């Protein structure tokens, strides 16, 4: 099985924390969508990576895909799906996710998405149900719009809804964070992505912190808020299946799981990444150049061939993020003796530090290990 990611870079404005490739502009949307269509025509034969099963997931992310109007969304799907050959034989079995911001999700727009597109999963960028939090990170929607967008989507028949929430925001107390989670549970969504705020260079938020205009919570509070999410969501039947991801039974993100399981995927659009098990490829992160090069038939990407060391390290990085942990048999079957010896030696140290525990043919991260997952991965890296 393989997946298809489509990057829509347009946004109404740049959020303070965002370091994804996005533009606070909606100019050239038509030219960009036409370029996406051309890239897909050039690359759809790459679905052989799917080992004969075809693409089973489509994820439209950004940026803000919901900044596209109805005609633009229709055009995108018409172009991508006009040839069904690259896709899973039964389109109804595909997971097709559309990222959206609450302020774009009017009744009319949601009704269109539900009835006139194949979208069957929404990922709504709520981030917080608190007005103070939303202002602090530069979001455009209100708390009311956040909850209303979910209820409208449910009313119109969407049965697979994921929401994004962020903890460790400026001035966010642990009680504030718990209140956010309780609101998400009350809304009866199927999936919650609970991210720790990441301070990235070049963002507005990073500048504000550097200038001491705002401060972020301490490391102890960050850990406390992570554990609040883990305990509260698990108590409400959400499976903690990846460090930042919680799902009700049967509602794991199939597309994102491809990334964490090192499965193949194709990425279309400016800045999009692709992986075919042996090579990683990334498109130019410039909308104008992307359009120009596509139209001139010039290369739009760079790529690297992964070495055995890279493949091992990437496996470790992914495995330390997911519930299933590190498969000992996978290591034994896929890597040379030197790598196996290194792994077993380092794993022994992590066992002594109570960062991992054996479970059948795997090593699972303890709660302490999850909190220090980057440290666990670095300890196992070559």
Description:
A hairpin with a 3-residue loop joins strand 10 (273-275) and strand 11 (279-283). The two termini are 29 Å apart. This protein has 2 domains: 2-260, tm_1862 like domain (pyruvate-formate lyase- activating enzyme, Alpha-Beta Horseshoe), CATH 3.80.30.20; 308-382, Arc Repressor Mutant, subunit A (Orthogonal Bundle). The model has no long low-confidence stretch (mean pLDDT 92). The chain contains 15 helices and 15 strands. The chain has a 9-stranded mixed sheet, with helices on both faces. Strands 10-11-12 form a 3-stranded antiparallel sheet, with no helix packed on it. Strands 13-15-14 form a 3-stranded antiparallel sheet. By secondary structure, it is α/β, with parallel strands linked by helices. It has helices spanning 29-43, 70-81, 107-116, 131-136, 143-155, 174-186, 204-210, 219-235, 254-260, 287-296, 308-319, 328-334, 337-352, 367-371, 373-380; strands at residues 2-8, 55-62, 95-100, 121-127, 161-167, 191-196, 239-242, 245-247, 265-268, 273-275, 279-283, 301-305, 326-327, 356-359, 362-365. Helix content is 41%, strand content 20%. The longest helix is centred in the middle third of the chain and has 17 residues, at 219-235.
Structure described in brief:
The protein has 382 residues and is an alpha/beta fold.
Can you tag this structure with a few keywords?
2 domains, 15 helices, pyruvate-formate lyase- activating enzyme, nine-stranded mixed sheet, 15 strands, three-stranded antiparallel sheet, Arc Repressor Mutant, subunit A, alpha/beta, globular, 382 residues
